[in-house]
Every structure is written in C-alpha cells, then in structure tokens.
Amino acid sequence: MTTITELENRIGSLGSCIVAFSGGVDSSLVAALAARALGHRALAVTAVSPALATGELDGARSVALAVGIGHETITTAELEREGYRANDRDRCYHCKTELYERLAALAERRGYASVLSGANADDVGDWRPGLRAAEEHAVVHPLLEAGVGKVEVRKLARVLGVPSAEKAASPCLASRIPYGTEVDPLVLARIDRAELAVKALGYATLRVRHYGGRGRVELDAPDLAALTPERRAAIVDAVLGSGYEQVEIASEPFRSGSLNASFTKRLAVAS
Predict the structure, then answer these.
(1) Residue 136: is its pLDDT beyond 70?
(2) What dotted CATH number matches 184-259?
(3) pTM for this structure?
(4) pLDDT given at position 257
(5) Residues 150-186, buried b or exposed e (16+ Cβ, 10 A)?
(6) Under 8 Å CB-to-CB from 215, ≥6 apart: which residues?
(7) Which of 130, 212, 228, 250 has its CA 20 to 30 A from that of 43?
C-alpha cells in the first residue's frame, strides 16, 4: 500500500501546485495531501459551468475548508467548444482541454509550478479521453503515478479525515446524455432539476439519463430493491415535474460509467 508520506513527498517536490478540484474523493485526497505537503503554496480550484450539478460547489467548498487548502473557482466555457457540444465519445477531451487550459493560465499568472488532478490507477482501464488532454497540458496525477486505485483512495481519505471519503462519484451532468446527442444548457438544467427532485424524496445515489423527452431513472441497488408502487409513483411525478414527458425507472441498479461499458468492451476486443 502506498503511504501518505510517499504521496506527500511527490507533491512536495513540485514546490507549488493548483489542484483541479471537484470535491469528489479523488481530488479531495490530492487536495488534502497538497495542503499537508505545501501549505499555502497549494490551491484548490473548482470549475463552474452549466454542467456542474447543484450542490457540488457547496460540497467542494466544505471539503476544502476541512482539509485546510485555499479554494477558488473559475468559470469554464466548454459549451462554446463544438467538439464538446457534439458529444461524441471524446467529449471529455474537449471538456478537460478547456479546464486545463484555464488552470494552466491561472498557474502561470499566479506562479504555481504545476497543475494536479485526482486521476487514479483505475481510470486507466476505463474510457478516459480527458487523460489525453491532461498529458497535453503536463498535468500531474500523483495517485495514478503511485498506482493508487479507488479502494485505496478511500482508505487513505479516511485516514486523513477527508469528509468526502465515502462520497459517491458525481461526474458532470453531460455524462447523463448518450453519446451523439448534442449537449445543450437547457437539457443540462432539466437533468439537474430531475435529479434534485428525486434526491428530495430521500434518494442519495442515482442518475437521470436523458433520452429526449424521456428521463430514465437509475437507482442504487438497495433503493431499487425497496421500491414500492407508492415510491415509484412519487419518483415518476418528480421527474415529470422537472420537464420530462415520459419517465422510465430502470430495472437494473445504477452503475457508474454504464454509458461507456459497451464502448470499452469493443475497444478491448479491437486491441
């Protein structure tokens, strides 16, 4: 198991850094390590755009305060990029290119030596075009470099008392839109409303996948198993109230990265 000291030494060797900070467990662990290794020479920066789900920014601020790292926000304009709006399978490349360009510019203006991400070793086995954008901008991945996967990330986060140690993954709202369907700010807002409405019913882990006028709700396995006709009806009403014309509740439980699953299988066969 990689030690906290080893990770701190690697980050400390950079001299100063900006952490691309979503508030999820991966970037939160990197932020906590950076704060310990570099103190005021480390800064966590959260990108704000229409693709950021409601509540995520507040969560990121709370985590930054808890781990003792300075925190700022920037506004990103990935929706102005044609490649991002087109929503092909390289959408994340265009999103991360926008992010890392802005973070690199900020680092240069403010005198920070490096930009860090929370990418971990498990990301290598998934379809992650954002890693290509990171490579093009010389982004440092301390967890990935050390071979630290998601299970170990959570263990280390618990040791350091990171508040988001158990936080479920919460990628950008565009991840709910099937590849090939254009990303539109109105669609992102509808997805956000729908997920907030279902969360208000007491469901913490879920996705609302966007299929035109139909919203497909995916629930965590325990919630799906406990679903009664009354609860089902409440979910349907909540999603209809957010602007969808039809609602489907998936019979299979939510699984992060499900839209990538068939594609990564084809990549594996082709290689």
Answers:
(1) yes
(2) 3.30.70.2210
(3) 0.90
(4) 60
(5) eebbbebbeebebbbbebeebebbbbbbeeeeebbee
(6) 190, 191, 194, 208, 209, 239, 242, 244, 246, 247, 248
(7) 130
Residues 6+ apart with CB under 8 A from 83: 90, 91, 93, 94
Question: pLDDT of 166-212, one tens digit each?
Answer: 998 889 999 999 999 999 999 999 999 999 999 999 999 999 999 99
150-159 and 25-38 helices, crossing angle to 10°: 50
Rounded Cα distance, 226 and 4, in Å:
39
Q: Are 38 and 8 in contact (CB under 8 A)?
A: no
Query: Strand (E) positions, the chain?
Result: 17-20, 42-48, 70-75, 114-116, 206-211, 214-219, 246-249
216: phi then psi, degrees, rounded to nearest 5: -105, 115
How confident is the model over 127-150, as a mean pLDDT?
A: 93
| The CATH classification of domain 4-159, taken from the options 3.10.150.10, 1.10.1740.10, 3.40.50.300, 3.40.50.620 | 3.40.50.620
Residues 86-101: tens digit of each pLDDT: 999 999 999 999 999 9
Mean pLDDT of 210-217: 97
Q: Are 27 and 45 in contact (CB under 8 A)?
A: no
Q: Where in the chain is the domain with CATH 3.30.70.2210?
A: 184-259
CA distance 144 to 255: 22
Strand-pair partners of 114: 17
Confidence of residue 128 (pLDDT cuts 50, 70, 90): confident
